[in-house]
Structures are given as C-alpha cells and as structure tokens.
# Entry
Amino acid sequence: MANESRPCPCDIGDRFDYGGRGREVQVEHIKAYVCRPPASSHRAVVVVHDIFGWQLPNTRYIADMLATNGYIAICPDFFVGQEAWKPSNDWASFDDWVKTRDAGKIDKEVDVVLKYLKDQCGAKKIGVIGFCWGGAAVQHLMLKNPHLKTGVSLYGVIRRFEDKHSLLHPTFFIFGEKDDIIPLEQVTLLEQKLKQNCKVDYVVKIYPGQTHGFVHRKREDINPQDKPFIEEGRKDMINWLNKYL
# Structure
C-alpha cells in the first residue's frame, strides 16, 4: 500500500453538488434511495455505496444514471444507521472503523432489498454494482447470492476477498492503473485466480492513468485527460448490465 496512514484514498475527487431525482424510502430496517426509470421496467440494480455512505451525492448521481438507462436503481444504507466515513476523520482509526462495517456481512440487508424490489417494484432481473467498499461487497455477493444475475465491481478492495474466486454470476471488474490501495500486482493475481477457478463470464479491465474512485468520484471536467476514461468506465458498466439483465 502506498500510504499506510491513508488506507483508503476515497476522498480523491469531488463531492458532487447534486440533489438526486429519486426519493428516500424505508425498506424494513433499512433506509434506501430509489430512482425509477421513465418507463416501467422489470430490471433493477442494487447500488452498494463506498465508505462515504448511501447519502453521498456522487453515488446517487450514478443511481440516477442507471435509471435513465432503464433500471430501477436502489442504493440502500448498508451501514444500517452507523455513521459513514468522513474525509475529516483520522485515517489512523480507519482499520478499526471498517472492522465494524464488514462488506462480507450484508446478506441479510441484501435479502430485504431483493424482496422489496420484487414485491414492490416488480423487478424480475436484478444485478448489483458497487464502489470501493461496495466493490468488495459485489465480489462477495457474486460468490454466494443465487438471486443476483450479474455484478460490476468498481475498484473493489481485493484483499477483502483475495482467496475466493468461484463466481456464480458474470462479473465485470473495473480498476484504475494508478490506484494507491489496489496495486496492479493484486489485479494481475485476481485475473490469474479467476482464470483458474471461474466458470462464468468475467472481465477485468484497467483504465490508464486513473486513480481510486475515478468512475464516481471525479467530475468529468476535473481533468480533460481523465474525462474519456470516466465516461468509458460508466459506459462499460451500463453495457455489461445491459448484456446480462
């Protein structure tokens, strides 16, 4: 890891000034942000937030983008009321903080959300995407949840699930070439293990010059040379979902 005092550089980029087009709902014990597409749809995507939580405008922006592309998008509070990480927090406390928010222990909440999507929204095909902490959660869900059709893991923290590779569903992995917490050797190893153990379709893609969080944490206008890769990452995500949902 490039900087032990900064275990997760998720504050690279911008907090979008974005209000969202969806609404907040209560789904049993979980609060969630839901955005529906203009026309009725039987396809839905669960959006798993990063360490900054379900209310981050950047994540809602992506959820709304999914809705524009014909998906019912839901971003639940997978911290279930626990505080999200704040950029002003002391990074020395990060490891202790994240231990109480395990990306591999969201199955109960996912089951509640899937029931809501099926019963209340009429969803028949459901996929999942996630960023950073949420990207690790996607890998976990693709290993064990039979009800999700596909997943996109965006810069998911590989070391959380580095020994597990027998995916149940087609999964797309997005990484940035210059990601401080996910070194390229980890990505190479992931690809090798998937090649040996994975029986379903998968893609591992590295985007040149990009840092952690680039698909949802950078504004398109922050740096002209980044814009094509931000847009490509978002387009690849939508195309993958379209292929399998």
About this structure: The radius of gyration is 17 Å. The helical segments are 57-68, 94-99, 107-121, 133-144, 184-197, 214-217, 227-244. The chain has seven helices and eight strands. Confidence is low (pLDDT under 50) at residues 1-5.
